[in-house]
Write a structure and sequence with these properties.
By secondary structure, the chain is mainly α. It is built from 4 helices and no strands.
Length: about 110
């Protein structure tokens, strides 16, 4: 996930127009977030099934971190990503929209 976030996405935006890069990344994001959710949820389930979820401070801390990762990834997949897609559809073209356009300004605040 770090590879996609810190290498692939900047490369796409650095080599494509803003609109093309947005289409590419916008197509990948829903799958990316759901894949992350499946992996983190699987890790949590395996941890619980293996009996490594508790008791003990270290086990509980690890379980809590995985549970937080599941919650945050679920928010990305089902809360944040749909909002990002909706904003993208209201703007039309990020390459041609003037900075003072109200559609752009209302989403930057």
């Amino acid at each position: 996930m770090a590879l996609f976030t810190f290498l692939v996405t900047p490369t796409i935006f650095g080599t494509q127009s803003r609109d093309a890069a947005g289409r590419i990344v916008g197509t990948i994001f829903p799958l990316y977030f759901r894949y992350g959710l499946a992996l983190t949820a699987s890790a949590l389930i395996v941890r619980i099934a293996a009996g490594e979820a508790w008791p003990g401070v270290r086990r509980l801390a690890g379980t809590a971190l995985l549970a937080a990762a599941v919650a945050l990834t679920a928010f990305q997949a089902y809360g944040l990503e749909p909002r990002m897609a909706a904003v993208k559809h209201t703007v039309g073209s990020f390459d041609t929209i003037p900075p003072e356009d109200p559609a752009l300004r209302s989403h930057n605040s």
